[in-house]
């Protein structure tokens, strides 16, 4: 494992190497430049994608329609593509070293509207997303980064991609500091995230409270939006191509390669309620290294203050116990409050978004090597996130408060520090007739946790109020070698790709300080003539709000896996494509898995494309799920404070209760769809899908130790716990749905342009068959998947989502209006004390106006949720005595948000 200093040193060496003047290589290059215009009107076309066929090298036209690209000598092909226009490929022959050739291009409007070139889901080096055998969305980020109200990738995708959903959690421990994200209603760990086609490491955090309980996701918020060229979302199972986690699909983030332009932006925003103030600053610059190399660097800082959307509380703050609700007790409370010179507002919870500050820098670079078209590439980033979350308030007379320290009770604060580091280095080029890509990618995420404004009640007045509770770390190193070749003389073209991959995962849990976890009231007492250990104070130990990890909880675990894969795409005719992929993986902890994929696509002229696929997939249990263990205080179903142990599957408690070791989740994915171009500049796609997952991993509810056989119960009591839960392969699920996307793009002869888009997702998740239980826990089988956990799994994400966007560019003015209909969700946030509740669908409207003050300066003003729409309020039973007013679902619960943004380019 690399230390932070080692990582920084390697990153510096990589930068230093890339910055060395490469005059020897540069002498072998040529330059192609020119202007791209609309064939009908003669107007220049800014933002046209130009790509060197068979490589990742490319550029885009500037505002004047001009481009310049450094290319290798000899013969080559350039591909020009632009939304609303027919793609065009031009061949250039006999380029010599140092030659500069001008190539002006005219693009014609086409029925193939929206045929963006994609690289995700295929190893052909690029294919129109209309010609792909599986659905791939292409989201260009540059305009969104200027016009959209959302400031991070997760929120941006929630409002743009109908099948993507991410919700910020409240009073949810670690999950407050990273918003879990899902695709097609699946878990955050069932979607694979790539950067530039390379696997991105997940977070070190496991979500234990709130949405997507028991899952591990990837923190997209640390990737600056200003560093991203586009995002490709493959909406189909792809484990046979990319390996574990790609059950629901793949999100591939393509970083910028631009050079010669400095882009800076500053954003400020605030919610209508006057809180959640946001300030964001981005800086992006790219420069050439030699004639053909480039380095693109982005720096970003985001400060997001917390929000508070709590309800009107019915808590009896000076009445012992949990007998809330009576008018008599409330009157006694009010009298006590007045005598102390306070108001009921002094005892309100803070419930809302956590405060987050994120500083990050990312780079993307490549330089040519030799005279054979090879290039050395590197990309990666460093970030630090500081967060402040708000656990439940502790009331004055409860046993977890020390009145000598907090006479009026207290609300703890969780303070996080999250470091994220990544670096990928590789070389790609040709070896004979084969394209070769060899790379190594390293990533690490470390989460350190502190409690402020807290107390260890068992220490009484001697307790500190600040605690180091420990933390987590996860690292991943992936070495990849891929060979690919196009046999263009066979049939209508056959592309073959072969490769292997070796991955090492590491996971750590670090203990906190003693006061964060110890119960100092535990002592020896004599019972029936015997000396036993008992709680002599009746007060919980450890830091309130989040007990620390004990030394016995510490983990340092590793896993390796090696994979071999192959895929073949056969163009039987120019219209008919058939693709097959297979991947074998061997994991050091659970063994082998073999997965395959078949896909086909048929083109009916320029109007209709039919496509379909079937594949098997898998998700290896995360090391977090295998090794996470912790003992903490929680309330049981009788509202009694008990010690609850979450035990790993290789532990003695798991053995006692017959909990088996975790195995991989397996899946079968079916998809069938079409793309339709009925009239000029219109594209419609629709795709049906079904995802069957077997042996899906869940985190069980808490098993009562007292209900176990006496000998087993005694061992648990010796461990100091009264309840226990585990991760286990317990359920099968089926997800069915349909995705529909329609776009219309109309450029006008006067330079104005209208872009319309409509996207929809309808999704249904169902648990199939009986829950798989341990024989030793048959009498508590209903605790494997409690009704409220099942409801969140099946209906916790919107059952449907529809997005509609209109953008009209008129000279220097650009107007954007977007409406998103978040479908209904069903939840029971009150658990054993709550009841199922269906929250109705909500329609949220975003607007923005962007004005080009000068050629280099844009000013944007706008709003998210301009009509201040909130989710339905909780039923009383689900509100924890009116503490929680809204659910953390659908569009969030903060209301209207207004922003301004200034963007500068030079």
UniProtKB/TrEMBL annotation:
Q: Localized where?
A: Cell outer membrane
Name all TonB-dependent receptor plug domain ranges: 130-250
Q: Does the keyword Transmembrane apply?
A: yes
Topological relation to the membrane, as annotated: Multi-pass membrane protein
The protein's matches in InterPro entries, at most eight in alphabetical order, are given as:
Beta-barrel_TonB (IPR000531), Beta-barrel_TonB_sf (IPR036942), CarboxyPept-like_regulatory (IPR008969), Plug_dom (IPR012910), Plug_dom_sf (IPR037066), TonB-dep_rcpt-like (IPR039426)
* The family this protein is said to belong to: Belongs to the TonB-dependent receptor family.
Q: Report what the protein is called.
A: TonB-dependent receptor
């Amino acid at each position: 494992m690399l230390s932070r200093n080692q990582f920084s040193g390697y990153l510096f060496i990589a930068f230093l190497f890339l910055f060395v003047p490469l005059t020897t290589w540069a002498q072998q290059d040529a330059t192609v430049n020119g202007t791209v215009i609309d064939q009908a009107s003669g107007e220049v076309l800014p933002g046209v994608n130009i790509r060197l066929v068979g490589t990742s090298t490319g550029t885009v036209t500037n505002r004047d329609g001009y481009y310049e690209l450094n290319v290798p000598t000899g013969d080559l092909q350039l591909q020009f593509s632009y939304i609303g226009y027919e793609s065009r490929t031009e061949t250039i022959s006999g380029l010599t070293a140092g030659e500069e050739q001008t190539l002006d291009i005219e693009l014609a409007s086409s029925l193939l509207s929206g045929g963006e070139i994609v690289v995700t889901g295929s190893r052909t080096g690029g294919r129109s997303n209309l010609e792909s055998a599986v659905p791939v969305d292409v989201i260009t980020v540059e305009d969104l980064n200027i016009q959209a109200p959302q400031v991070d990738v997760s929120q941006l995708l929630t409002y743009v991609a109908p099948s993507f959903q991410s919700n910020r959690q409240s009073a949810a421990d670690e999950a407050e500091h990273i918003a879990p994200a899902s695709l097609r209603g699946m878990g955050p760990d069932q979607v694979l995230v790539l950067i530039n086609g390379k696997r991105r490491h997940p977070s070190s955090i496991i979500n234990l409270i709130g949405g997507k309980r028991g899952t591990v996701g990837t923190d997209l918020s640390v990737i600056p939006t200003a560093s991203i060229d586009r995002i490709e979302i493959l909406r189909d199972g792809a484990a046979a191509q990319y390996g574990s986690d790609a059950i629901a699909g793949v999100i591939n983030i393509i970083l910028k390669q631009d050079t010669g332009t400095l882009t800076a932006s500053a954003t400020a925003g605030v919610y209508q309620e006057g809180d959640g103030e946001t300030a964001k600053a981005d800086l992006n610059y790219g420069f050439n290294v030699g004639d053909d190399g480039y380095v693109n660097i982005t720096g970003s800082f985001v400060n997001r203050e917390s929000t508070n959307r709590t309800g009107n509380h019915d808590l009896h703050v000076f009445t012992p116990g949990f007998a809330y609700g009576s008018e008599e007790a409330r009157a006694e409370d009010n009298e006590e409050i007045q005598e102390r010179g306070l108001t009921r507002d002094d005892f309100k919870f803070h419930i809302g978004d956590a405060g987050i500050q994120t500083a990050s820098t990312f780079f993307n670079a490549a330089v040519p090597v030799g005279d054979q078209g090879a290039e050395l590439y590197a990309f990666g980033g460093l970030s630090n996130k500081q967060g402040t979350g708000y656990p439940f308030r502790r009331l004055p007379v409860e046993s977890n408060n020390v009145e000598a320290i907090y006479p009026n009770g207290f609300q703890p604060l969780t303070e996080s520090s999250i470091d994220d580091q990544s670096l990928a280095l590789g070389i790609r080029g040709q070896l004979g007739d084969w394209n070769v890509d060899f790379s190594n990618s390293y990533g690490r995420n470390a989460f350190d946790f502190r409690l402020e404004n807290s107390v260890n009640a068992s220490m009484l007045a001697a307790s500190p109020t600040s605690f180091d509770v420990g933390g987590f770390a996860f690292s991943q190193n992936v070495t990849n070698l891929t060979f690919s070749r196009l046999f263009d003389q066979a049939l209508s073209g056959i592309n073959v790709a072969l490769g292997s991959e070796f991955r090492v995962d590491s996971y750590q849990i670090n203990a906190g300080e003693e006061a964060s976890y110890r119960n100092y009231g535990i002592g020896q007492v004599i019972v029936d003539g015997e000396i036993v250990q008992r709680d002599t104070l009746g007060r919980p130990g450890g830091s309130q709000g989040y007990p620390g990890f004990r030394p016995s909880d510490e983990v340092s675990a590793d896993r390796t896996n090696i994979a071999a894969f192959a895929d073949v795409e056969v163009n039987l005719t120019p219209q008919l494509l058939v693709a097959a992929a297979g991947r074998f993986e061997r994991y050091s902890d659970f063994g082998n898995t073999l997965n395959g994929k078949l896909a086909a696509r048929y083109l009916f002229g320029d109007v209709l494309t039919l496509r379909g696929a079937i594949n098997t997939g898998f998700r290896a249990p995360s090391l977090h799920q295998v090794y996470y263990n912790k003992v903490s205080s929680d309330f049981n179903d009788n509202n009694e404070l008990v010690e609850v142990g979450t035990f790993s599957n290789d532990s003695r408690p798991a053995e006692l209760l017959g909990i088996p070791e975790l195995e991989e989740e397996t899946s079968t994915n079916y998809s069938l769809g079409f793309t339709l171009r009925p009239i000029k500049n219109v594209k419609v796609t629709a795709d049906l899908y079904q995802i069957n997952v077997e042996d899906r991993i869940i985190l069980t509810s808490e098993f009562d130790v007292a209900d176990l056989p006496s000998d087993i119960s005694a061992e648990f009591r010796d461990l100091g716990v009264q309840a226990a839960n585990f991760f286990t392969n317990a359920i099968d699920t089926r997800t069915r749905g349909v995705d529909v996307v329609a776009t219309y793009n109309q450029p006008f002869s006067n330079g104005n342009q209208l872009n319309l888009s409509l996207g929809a997702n309808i999704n249904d998740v169902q648990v199939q068959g009986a829950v798989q239980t341990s024989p030793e826990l048959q009498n508590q089988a209903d605790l494997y998947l409690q009704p409220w956990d099942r409801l969140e799994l099946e209906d916790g994400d919107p059952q449907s989502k529809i997005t509609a966007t209109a953008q009209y560019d008129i000279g220097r003015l650009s107007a954007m209006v977007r409406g998103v209909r978040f479908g209904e969700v069903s939840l029971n946030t009150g658990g054993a004390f709550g009841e199922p509740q269906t929250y109705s669908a909500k329609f949220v409207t975003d607007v923005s106006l962007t004005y080009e003050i000068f050629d280099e300066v844009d000013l944007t003003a706008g709003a998210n949720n301009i009509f201040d729409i909130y989710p339905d309020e909780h039923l009383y039973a689900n509100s924890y005595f009116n503490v929680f007013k809204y659910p953390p679902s659908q569009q969030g619960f903060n209301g209207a948000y207004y922003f301004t943004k200034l963007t500068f380019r030079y």
